[in-house]
Design a protein that fits this description.
The protein is of the alpha+beta class. Helices cover about 35% and strands about 20% of the residues. It has 2 domains: about 80 residues, no CATH class; about 220 residues, Endonuclease/exonuclease/phosphatase (Deoxyribonuclease I, Chain A, 4-Layer Sandwich).
Length: about 325
């Protein structure tokens, strides 16, 4: 009996699934959104208007978004979108991550200078808490923003004058007032031209013969319908670092801008250091609550040679900001 030999049948490979055009478009759209988010700071037009200023203020949140998009693109095998998202994420990491990594300690001998900056929120911040911070942190210089005449009186009743008897205070109604109070003698300077909100400056006579020039910073809030240009003019009017051999300089207050905004990046590039970034505390927000993204817009900037040894952000009831404290050392 003949046995028929069955010929082997070819097994057709499973057809490759076609990628969904809708998914591809959604992923590409998300990556384009990330590109639009980062473009103002990458291309240098972040101060164009209040919308670009606001977008750059929350730039640090774009980094985790970029990481998620890279993972999503890899999982869905959308290679072009993944590549673009990865490049943007690397650029964001280079821009943002250093402020969360403390610098190597810098040995320095000199005079300690403990600086506290508090935005009083139209003078409504709890005066007892402000004085408690001054006392417990042994503050040498206090920068106050949105200081009203009534707030000055309340702070003095709480004991501020006994702790910091020397002052240059431009107290005004609403948010316009700014002041400097010091443990050490000081005399008023004019380092900043007249601006919408007061930005006083003073020369502080530290023990040991070294002087410090101090500026209480508060440029106009940039998120109003027509205030972005004023904010830019006023923040760029702040003095640059002093010439070599000159007095040390400290700028402390509510800059209404983050380290991602061009004016602050320019100041750091000219020789200032940010106490939060130096100590690895640059991600700690100082303003924002509720649905508003929390951002770091209060800063202590120091000129070359002044070393930030410690930095912290502190709650102040009654204020919409958190206070910033920096322990500095001014070299002899």
């Amino acid at each position: 009996m003949d046995l028929a030999v069955a010929e082997p049948q070819e097994i057709e490979p499973h057809p490759r699934k076609r990628k969904s055009g809708t998914v591809t478009a959604l992923v590409a759209l998300a990556v384009l959104g990330l590109l639009a988010w980062t473009a103002p700071v990458l291309l240098g037009f972040d101060t164009q208007n209040r919308y670009t200023i606001a977008l750059v203020a929350i730039l640090q949140y774009a980094l985790p978004v970029g990481v998620v998009l890279v993972v999503l693109g890899l999982a869905l095998r959308r290679w072009i979108s993944t590549l673009v998202a990865a490049l943007l994420t690397v650029l964001l990491a280079v821009l943002v991550l250093p402020r969360g990594i403390p610098d190597s300690p810098t040995p320095v001998q000199g005079t300690p200078l403990r600086v506290l900056s508090v935005n009083l929120y139209f003078g409504q911040a709890q005066p007892e808490r402000v004085v408690e911070l001054v006392r417990s942190r042994r503050v040498d210089v206090l920068s106050l923003q949105e200081v009203t005449p009534e707030a000055v009186a309340a702070l003095d009743r709480a004991g501020l004058r006994e702790l910091l008897p020397h002052r240059v205070v431009h107290a005004r109604p609403g948010a316009d007032g700014t002041g400097i109070a010091s443990r050490f003698p000081m005399r008023e300077l004019s380092l900043v031209p007249p601006t919408s909100l007061a930005q006083p400056s003073a020369r502080i006579d530290l023990p040991g013969g070294r002087d410090v020039e101090f500026v209480g910073v508060h440029p106009l809030y940039p998120m109003g319908a027509d205030t972005a240009g004023s904010w830019l003019r006023e923040i760029t009017a702040l003095p640059g670092p002093p010439a070599e051999g000159g007095p040390a300089r400290v700028l402390a207050g509510d800059f209404n801008g983050t380290l991602d905004h061009t004016p602050l990046r320019t100041m750091l590039g000219r020789g200032y250091s940010d106490a939060a970034e130096v100590t690895g505390g640059g991600f700690t927000p100082t303003w924002g609550s509720g649905w508003v993204p929390r951002v770091t817009i209060d800063h202590v900037l120091t000129s070359a040679g002044v070393v930030a040894q410690a930095y912290s952000v502190l709650d102040v009831p009654g204020s919409d900001h958190r206070a910033v404290f920096a322990h500095l050392v001014v070299p002899s």
